[in-house]
Design brief:
Strand content: 15-25%
Bound molecules: adenosine-5'-diphosphate, magnesium ion
Structural class: alpha+beta
Shape: elongated
Radius of gyration: 31 Å
Number of strands: 24
Helix content: 25-40%
């Protein structure tokens, strides 16, 4: 019969160490956090062989009292927490009191520390004589040496050699020195971002890898770790909501990455990972990034400590918020509003600003944008005049929209232009959503695909499909909001046969599809019938659209939220209803399309996130042609 044994302490420590100390970077993280908690203003880190040979962290913090050295290395010993209640008001990085013990259990550790004079006077009742000198202690895989006198500089100096020397399995799992060093650099970066004002130096095998000085602010640090180019493409954010404060920088969509690694989130000075807030950030970029691409962001969130539980993860990299929903909305709204303020027409090259600070921080002057059609000498297009139209810029925009509708109707017979039927009754809309779009002077179509447009400050190349798609997307969204989406009742409901799981999935989302005018009903077996159809799509076979919808739904890991689903369906509809590349356009249609940019909230990118237009500034052209 198996009997239960109480595990010896050294085994317990190793088990605990397994949770906290996964690789050299984990040691660096714990030691750095201790230095931060000790109020250090300078930290020097030396690494050898990716940390498997040596990790040394030297700080100028308040130091450890000689009498506490042994305790510092024992489990559940901390100076940061006294009662369980303190757990709900954590203001320090550490509080579990297990890092040093864990590290000591799996490496050869030496701690040398001397309390600084300032702290000495503060610590009442301490024996001043003995604590004026520093002390040192060593641990060999958990076996402690005695405490010896040490007479170094004030602060703490911790060396960890031969990590995992006594845990061969772990040691075998270590990757190459450069991979481990990469992880260490990431930890260093996070802390450097979290603590501007701290002088930090990182060396590998004796060579400087990174150094940030106390004077380097967040932006300067982003420049150090991510380069000047990215630094120049950031937008500052700052928002408050109740007790929560969100600030930092978000990247221009052009800085997009293939993964979320360049999305930094800090909560009360601690780097954390948070799926929900990461999602909110990405949602803020919806329509500006291609699927599978990630924004760059440096977000700092401050909330009162009692609003968050930091004790839910061994390395404290995940937390639980009291009101996660409110923070989600805050991140989403802040990011989206900030991006909406920008003119996000893709620039070929971001113009480097003279003083090295990002050119985009200063608000752009809002230009008045007289309409293309109002220009003297340019023919006003009135093929399909709307009775209420007078030649104010506002109604000219509507006229432009009407022109494009005319185009759709006109080309109805020609099959290859596919005359994608467009919604018919565009009412006049305000043009003040984007007052700063470049003024258009002249426009032509090339390769039946792009529109080349002269503007006051340069030249725009527009992707006709991408732009029209974006305009329609906004249009559909607007109509959905006002319940004015045109729907056609099918005279004879059309059956569409699908795979069993596809049919089930489609029917599961019947409600959202219905909102967009797509009526689907169960017909038994694997067949669904289409009963209603959005007028916008009336030239597309329903089976084709349904199959695209199903593909969208099937490609999702998790079921999309209602908003996501609607947004995806809307972009699908817009894509199918928009003019195609290859469609020849008349000058009036070109003008109409170009003018429609003013109608939408966000015409810089198509709903899939591809850019709709590239801007070549006059200056850029002059430079390329060596005129300046
Ligand atoms: P925790 O940080 O959770 O308290 P640790 O095991 O990391 O636990 O550290 C134990 C204690 O050792 C800390 O509470 C702190 O008092 C002391 N300590 C560790 N590192 C330093 C340092 N660099 N400077 C001053 N005190 C330190
Ligand atoms: Mg700690």
């Amino acid at each position: 019969m198996l009997r239960i044994l109480q595990l010896p302490t050294n085994v317990i420590t190793k088990i605990a160490a397994g949770e906290v100390i996964e690789r050299p970077a984990s040691v660096v993280k714990e030691l750095l956090e201790n230095s931060l908690d000790a109020g250090a203003t300078r930290i020097d880190i030396d690494i050898e062989q990716g940390g498997s040979e040596l990790i040394r962290v030297v700080d100028n913090g308040h130091g450890i009292h000689p009498d506490d050295l042994e305790l510092a290395l024992s489990n559940h010993a901390t100076s940061k927490l006294a009662t369980a209640d303190d757990l709900f008001a954590v203001r320090t990085m550490g509080f579990r009191g297990e890092a040093l013990a864990s590290i000591a259990g799996v490496g050869q550790v030496t701690i040398q520390s001397r309390m600084s004079g300032f702290r000495l006077q503060e610590s009442e009742g301490r024996d001043q004589e003995s604590s004026e000198l520093g002390a040192e202690i060593s641990s060999n895989g958990g076996d402690l040496s005695g405490v010896k006198v040490w007479n170094g500089a004030a602060g703490t100096r911790i060396e960890v050699r031969h990590l995992f020397f006594n845990v061969p399995v772990r040691r075998k799992f270590l990757r190459t020195a450069s991979t481990e060093m990469g992880h260490i650099c990431e930890i260093f970066t996070r802390i450097a971002f979290a603590r501007p004002g701290m002088h930090m130096v990182l060396k590998h095998n004796g060579k400087n890898v990174y150094e940030v000085s106390a004077a380097d602010d967040l932006l300067a640090r982003i420049g150090v770790f991510f380069g000047k180019e990215l630094r120049a493409q950031l937008y500052a954010i700052d928002a408050r909501q109740g007790p929560a404060h969100l600030f930092g920088y978000i990247g221009d969509p052009a800085c997009e990455r293939g993964n979320a690694k360049s999305q930094y989130l800090f909560l009360n000075g601690r780097w954390i990972r948070d799926r929900s807030l990461g999602h909110a950030l990405q949602e803020g970029y919806r329509g500006l990034l291609m699927t599978g691409r990630y924004a760059v962001a440096f977000l700092f969130l401050e909330v009162p400590p009692d609003q968050v539980d930091v004790n839910v993860h061994p390395t404290k990299s995940e937390v639980r918020f009291r009101d996660a929903g409110a923070l989600y909305s805050m991140v989403l709204a802040t990011v989206r509003n900030r991006l909406n303020e920008e003119e996000l027409t893709s620039r070929l090259q971001p113009p480097p600003s003279a003083n090295g600070s990002p050119a985009y921080f200063s608000p752009r002057p809002a230009e008045a944008t007289p309409s293309l059609f109002a220009k003297p000498g340019f023919p006003t297009f009135t093929k399909n005049p709307i009775p209420s139209v007078v030649s104010s810029p506002l109604s000219v925009a509507a006229e432009a929209a009407a022109a494009l509708v005319g185009f759709a109707e006109e080309t109805e017979e020609t099959e290859e232009t596919a005359g994608e039927a467009l919604a018919t009754d565009h009412g006049p809309r305000t043009t003040d959503a984007k007052p700063d779009l470049p003024e258009v002077i002249n426009a032509i179509q090339v390769h039946n695909t792009y529109l080349v447009v002269e503007t006051t400050d340069g030249m725009l190349v527009i992707d006709q499909h991408a732009l029209h798609e974006r305009v329609l997307f906004e249009e559909i969204k607007e109509r959905l909001r006002h319940g004015t989406l045109d729907v056609q009742q099918m005279l004879i409901p059309e059956p569409v046969e699908l795979a069993a799981d596809q049919a089930a999935l489609l029917l599961e989302h019947r409600k959202e599809l219905g909102e967009l005018g797509l009526g689907v009903e169960d017909f038994g077996g694997n067949t669904v019938i289409v009963t209603r159809y959005p007028a916008l799509l009336d030239r597309r076979p329903p089976a084709e659209i349904l199959k695209r919808v199903v593909d969208q739904l099937m490609s999702k890991e998790r079921l999309p939220t209602r908003e996501q689903l609607l947004s995806e369906l809307m972009s699908l509809m817009a894509c199918h209803a928009a003019v195609r590349s290859g469609d020849p356009l008349t000058p009036e249609e070109i003008a109409a399309l170009v003018e429609m940019r003013h109608l939408s909230n966000d015409t810089h990118h198509c709903p899939h996130g591809r850019p709709t237009a590239l801007l070549f500034t006059r200056q850029e052209l002059d430079r390329q042609f060596r005129r300046i």
